[in-house]
Amino acid sequence: MRSLSSLKSLSVLVAATLAVTGLAACGGGSDKSSDASTATSGTVNWWGWTPTDTATANGYIAEFNKKYPDIKVNYKLVNISDWVAALRPALASGKGPDVFDMQPGAYVTQFKSFAEDQTPLAEQALGAGWKDKIAPIGISGLTADGKLTAMSVGSVYAGMLWINGDIFKKYNLKPPTTLSEWQHVCQVLKQNKVGCFVQGAAQEGFDQDTLQSIANSVQPGLWTKVSTGDAKWTDPGIVKTFQIWKQLFDSGIMQEGAVGYQQYPDANNDFLTGKYGMVMMGTWYTQYATGKAMTAALSAAGVSGAKPFPILPIAFPDVAGAGNTSEMYGDADFGLAISTKSQSKAAAETFVKWMATSTEGQQAIADQLNDLPSVKGVTPNFDQIQLVDAASQKGPVQDLITKAASITEPRESLLSSDVQNGILAAATSVATGKASPEDATKTLQQAAEAAGVTFK
Amino acid sequence: MTATTTRVRPERKAVVQGSGRMKKPPGLPWILPALVLSVGLIYYGIGYTGYISTLNWDGLSPGAEHVGAHNYTRIFHDPVFWDAVRHTLVFFVVTFVIQTILGLAFAVILHAKLRLAAIYKVIVFVPVVLAPAIMAPVFRHMFAPDGELNAVLRHVGLGGLAQPWIGQTSTALPVIMFITIWEWTGVTFVLYYAAMTQVDPSVLEAARMDGAGNMRTLVSIIWPDLRGTTVALAMLGAIGALKTFDVPYLVTIGGPNYATEFLGTYIYRMTIPLSHVGYGAALSIILLVVALIMALALQFAGRERKGR
Residue span of the signal peptide, if any (chain A) (predicted)? Predict the structure, then answer.
């Protein structure tokens, strides 16, 4: 009897303990006021989808550690397709990163409440006139509700194509400037059993790039107008954009099965392994103009002993035939945000300040060619950058960087997740023939209105 | 077994008769830890999901808006939801039928006296223990436009059949079903194999003496005896179809153009990338209700036949 009674008491105790520990677990992570670091020592956990290879990130960290050897920075690369899924619970639980990448647009909307306001940090680092010292594109997109959610590290621009220089040279091809020339290039490559253009059309961000480029060929500035609600997605220019998008599939420019491809890793790997001659990527691809980054990327793609080849940026062809040079567009690629729940805020601020505002940090960013630095006046040092084939690449790469510096058209910062999802649905339904461009744009307009975009 | 039962029962009776206080059923303290965990983790989770389903909420912001049953009414007008339901039904019927045929066939064949039967059993069962996350890249590669399947087709002169299997809406769902069948036929096989060992040999012998051939014996003697196993497999298959997430997410991400969207992938898409946590919760509740109805219906169908 006593043993039964004891067991009963024990069971109640166990149950109570479980309940209490469960509640304690639920409440865990709320007290994050303490700071285990100082401005010169501590551990900083940095999560990002970019730099897209850890070697580049570790290169930045190595430079940082030359000045701050007692701050250990751990970089965790998260694929962009898993970014939201990984970061949301991490930040909410308080067990996530101290520093995390932030991009204008949907990410700022989703994660602004977890980001410290970095205005004081910017003022401290660059003085009261800090806004004049940073590229404007890196401030506006990362500001929300009057708060600077992240310090822009660098910017990226899209709207161009990258070609495999060796393939174009081998088959004596010129970069296409019109839709018909593009088709011709693809015909020649296909006759030689080489893929022409590869796109991960299953990923919205990259479909948007191609669509925005087509739209800029149809009517420059129209894409921005519909993004802000100054024009509707059913505008004839957008319908025409989707018609040309469909032509890319029907005329054999897009690879077979493009709507089942991811840009990363599928299209990226296929281009870097030489299976295709062209790909739609932005200025972040400039890094693969260097032998070091391309070798690392080839290795990451599972190719051992592959020989790096020169990649070259070319203007997006005038696919509408309207005589418009398709302009580039861009955003802050990534700012670095500091988590409100970080326990290493002092060290995190030192790292962010060094990356985003110091000459050394920005020079490291510039020289990696992954981003264009956000601090004005810092440019890549081409005397120290080893391109795969400097003779053919140096001119186009320098021209690209010069041209990008004057770009003001936004890339993704004006679009919410819902609108981006609507664009992907419209793009894939048109590509697969499930909807006409007219019907797809009507559905897209409805999706944008449902997402709260106000149209004039 | 019988001896143990008769020894325990009088003890229990004695405890109950011992004192007035001990007359209360003593089960509660014993099940309390499990009850706390179960109610705390599962039923609380279901209840909380039900509550969230009445909100317009991104899962993080403090200001969630109460919208009542609006999320549910939206779901019934959502074409992607109905696509997901349709895919689930097709997926269940096709995978269940083919797995049943294959599992039964393997079980029958391996009940015959084959050499190296143990190795065949392992080969059939191995896919069950391989994680979909490991196999997904393999299948993505295999079914890619320049993948192994198309290479084989071209090699044997069937290049006309080569196509981007997971890159077009017409073939993406069949690929997902193929992978699932490959993965789970081993379970069907093992259960049928075990069930067949329970068939009374004298009945089989009598059938033989009456002149029944192999097929007749299988259809008229063995198959009816396997009914319980088939119902259990149908129930597992139906619930598995409703829960399907890993293979379509890892191989096709629910695409192209929602061609392989299932309830599980759609819940994830709405909840995580698009941050419509309230809407995703409403989808989850609907999934739960459908799973319960399906399980009850299949169980009821099994019992009804048993009673006849």
Answer: 1-24
Is residue B18 domain-resident?
no
Q: Do A183 and A316 belong to one domain?
A: yes
pLDDT of amino acid B303: 67
Contact call for A113 and B60, based on CB within 8 A: yes
Does residue A377 share a domain with residue A264?
A: no
Indicate the pTM of the whole model. Answer: 0.81
Minimal CA–CA distance to A150: which of A194, A186, A107, A205? A107
Looking at chain B, which residue has its C-alpha nearest residue A87?
B272
Element (H, E) at A315: strand A311-315
Give the closest-approach CA distance of A325 to chain B in angstroms: 31
Q: Give the nearest partner residue to A259 out of B58, B257, B274, using CB atoms.
A: B257
pLDDT at A51: 87
Tell me the sheet residues that pair with A42.
A71
* CB within 8 Å: B167 and A418: no
**So what's the pLDDT on residue A18?**
37
**Are residues A317 and A258 part of one domain?**
yes
**pLDDT for B301 beyond 80:** no
Q: Which domain holds residue A437?
A: 160-327+408-450
Same domain, residue pair A257 and A116:
no
Measured at the alpha carbon of residue B152, what is the angle toward residues B147 and B158, in degrees to the nearest 5?
115
Say if the Cβ atoms of B274 and A18 lie within 8 Å: no
Average pLDDT over residues A19-44: 58
Q: Which domain CATH number covers B132?
A: 1.10.3720.10
Chain B residues with CB-CB distance to A275 below 8 A: 146
Judged by CB atoms closer than 8 Å, whether chains meet at A202 and B253 is answered as yes
List, in sequence order, every residue forming a beta bridge with A73; answer none if it has no partner.
A44
CB neighbours of residue B262 within 10 Å: 26
Min Cα–Cα distance to chain B from A119, Å: 22
Q: Is residue A132 part of a domain?
A: yes
Q: Is residue B160 part of a domain?
A: yes
Give the distance between the most distant pair of CA atoms in chain A: 95
Distance from CA of B273 to the nearest CA of A (A): 6
Q: What is the residue-averaged pLDDT of chain A? A: 87
Residues A336 and A307 in one domain: no
The answer to whether residues B276 and B293 touch, using CB atoms and an 8 Å cutoff, is: no
Mean per-residue pLDDT of chain B:
87
Q: Residue A388 domain-assigned?
A: no
pLDDT in tens, A155-165: 889 999 999 99
- Taking the Cβ of residue B27 and every Cβ of chain A, the question of whether any pair is shorter than 8 Å is answered with no
Q: For residue B60, list chain A residues with Cβ-Cβ distance below 8 A.
A: 88, 92, 110, 113-114
User: What pLDDT is recorded for position A34?
Assistant: 67
Given this model, what pLDDT does residue B22 score? 54
Q: Which of B169, B253, B275 sits opposite A110 (nearest CB)?
A: B275
Tell me, what's the ipTM? Answer: 0.75
* Closest residue, chain B, to A201 (C-alpha): B256
Domain that residue B88 falls in: 71-307
- Separation CA B40–CA B45 (nearest Å): 7
Total domain count for chain B?
1
Q: Where are the beta strands (DSSP E) in chain B?
A: 55-56, 65-66
Give A17's pLDDT tier (boundaries 50, 70, 90). Answer: very low
